Amino acid sequence: MSRSRVKILIAGAGLSGLSAAFHLGQREYRIVDREARPGGLCRTERVGDYLFDYGGHLLHLRADSVRGLVRELLGGRLLEMDRRSSIYSHGVFTRYPFQVNTYGLPEEVVLECLDGIRKARAEAAGAPEPSDFESWVLYHFGPGFARHFFFPFNRKFFKMNLREMDTEWAQWSIPRPTLAEAEAGATAVSAKAFGYNARFFYPKGGIEELPKALTAGLSRPVETGVEVVGLDPAERLALLSTGEEVKYGRMISSLPLRELLRRCRNLPEELAPGRDLDCLSVRCRNLGLEGQATTTDQHWIYFPEERFPFHRVGVYSNIHPIGPDLVSLYLETTFRGAGVIDVISSSDPELDGLRSTPLWSESGRLVSSSVMNIDYGYVVYDERRRRLLPRALTWLAGCGVECVGRYGRWEYAAMEDALIQGREAAERITGGRA
Length: 434
Ligand SMILES: Cc1cc2nc3c(=O)[nH]c(=O)nc-3n(C[C@H](O)[C@H](O)[C@H](O)COP(=O)(O)OP(=O)(O)OC[C@H]3O[C@@H](n4cnc5c(N)ncnc54)[C@H](O)[C@@H]3O)c2cc1C
Prior knowledge:
Layout: E1 3-11, H1 15-24, E2 29-33, E3 44-47, E4 50-53, H2 64-74, E5 78-82, E6 85-89, E7 92-95, H3 107-124, H4 133-158, H5 168-173, H6 179-184, E8 199-203, H7 209-216, E9 222-224, E10 228-232, E11 237-240, E12 245-253, H8 257-263, E13 279-291, E14 300-302, E15 312-315, E16 326-336, H9 349-355, E17 364-379, H10 383-398, E18 401-403, H11 415-429
Parallel strand pairs: 1-2, 1-12, 2-9, 6-14, 12-18
Antiparallel strand pairs: 3-4, 5-8, 6-7, 10-11, 11-12, 13-16, 13-17, 14-15, 15-16
């Protein structure tokens, strides 16, 4: 076994690890990733003429500093556009978000939603906000919106009892309109853009252009195909799949937290359940089509109803056209747990589901069909996470390990957060002089 020393070991070269390395500049560090190329979830695969990301990856940039960095890295290759997103339910498309766009739904559905939200808002006045997701939805939107969108969509997506789920993620991601806005949305398509994702950026060539540009700006190469297989946090030792043992001063880790805890020697007993933190994995069915394959101009569409196996269909070629009459789209389905995705082989419920929607046109021709399985897709905000996360992160920080990124910190975080957290970790380690 060979031994080496490094001041800073960056484990994982997704956006958060790359951002940390980028902001460390000329300082001494090593960055390793077990995959064959950097980028993590922000990679793009080419299948013939078609480009597919690992699920829709659109940049919602709120911080000026990140916007500036991304513009500097991608320059004229950055596309910017307003969201075109809808929901397909009750046999009609309505605009996203549902709670301000009931216009177009069957009248009885609209009335039930409005009646429910009026009562909910009257009852909520002065009452404390509930902490579980199911009660939170009823508190803010009432039983009509719950029955026609929030409950079916979120049960289908999270595959868990919504009463056992925290609301931390919903606080920033689900827009809560005023009663007047919800009422106005029943009589006309809402002109106001609601939500954090109303406008977005996307690089020409696919989302991987962003990690590629970051990688090009590093002072050291990313060591790919190198896995962190063991960790002794107390001794600050990492064991790599090459057989090398690295003594580090500080570590910046974007490994999924539960993977990191599984690799830790001498983990305190009270943190052992952290090795089983819960998450959803995601299956993306990617389709390449030719001809007038779809009439939709939407970027993505949600499917709350159980009769469709997928919860979302996205059309990459409506964001980044790849050629005349070429359509690339993905069907996204979640599974509970990591690495437990069935490969559907004997029947094709996804394609059958798509064919049964107005998105499908018989004048199109299916050219390619491929699958991407994402082991770590969405973090589950349950009691175990609430209990263990702060303690695990504090213990690791005490051992010199800065956890960053969506799975490193086990949270529902976006690409912008990954870029910020990587930079902040670099700044903490260098005393703000990164
Ligand atoms: C389906 C889906 C859609 C999304 N859509 C959006 C969106 O539209 N907009 C948005 O802003 N965000 C989106 N996100 C979130 C976004 O992908 C993440 O926030 C971001 O990419 C996380 O970057 P990261 O560096 O933290 O993690 P990752 O990209 O997961 O990077 C972690 C890296 O660690 C490496 N690694 C793991 N284990 C080891 C090991 N033992 N040794 C060495 N290396 C290891 C991995 O190979 C990987 O490269 C989406 C996520 C998913 C799953």
